[in-house]
Design goal:
The protein is mainly β. The protein has one helix at about 1-20, and strands at about 25-40, 45-55, 65-75, 80-90, 95-105, 110-120, 130-135, 140-150. Mean pLDDT is about 90; it is low at about 1-20. It has a domain at about 25-35 and about 50-70 and about 85-150. A hairpin with a 5-residue loop joins strand 3 (about 65-75) and strand 4.
């Protein structure tokens, strides 16, 4: 009984710590504009995707309502797993731009992102974090994200 309480307390502590590490969170809406799949054999393919996106965040106002384009390369392997990598380039209403790279490891439903460049107010910013697609309906996707925004 005491072991169960200790394990539960430890898990709660870890969950609180992970959430507390995020100083920025938000959502992203994407619409795929281009998709092409190259299948080399059954269940082994490479899909290229281009999508338009808008980022929304109340606790990271710098990134709120920035819009732009993202590209993705999605590899599906015969073991039934997929992995993906990509880049996004976005700008705000003032024309300042920022870019990020992202990756989603094989067989997972979460990925990581980090900024790689920016202009104007985004110059020199080094933010990073996690993301997870929470809903997809054809070409439309809703994504939750969080991380450390600097």
């Amino acid at each position: 009984m005491n072991t169960k309480v200790l394990v539960l307390a430890t898990l709660c502590s870890v969950a609180t710590h992970i959430h507390a590490a995020d100083n920025c969170t938000g959502s992203e809406a994407t619409v795929d504009s281009y998709t092409e799949t190259f299948e080399v054999s059954k269940d082994h393919s490479l899909t290229m995707v281009r999508s338009a996106s808008v980022v929304m965040s109340e606790d990271a106002p710098m990134y709120n309502f920035t819009t732009g384009e993202c590209t993705a390369s999605v590899l599906a392997t015969p073991d039934g797993k997929t992995q993906a990598t990509g880049h996004c380039l976005r700008r705000d209403k003032d024309g300042d731009a920022w870019s990020l790279e992202w990756a989603q490891p094989p067989g997972t439903d979460k990925g990581t992102w980090k900024t790689v460049g920016g202009t104007g107010k985004f110059a020199g910013k080094r933010s990073s974090g996690w993301f997870q697609e929470v809903r997809r309906d054809g070409k439309l996707a809703a994504i939750r994200w969080g991380g450390s925004c600097k």
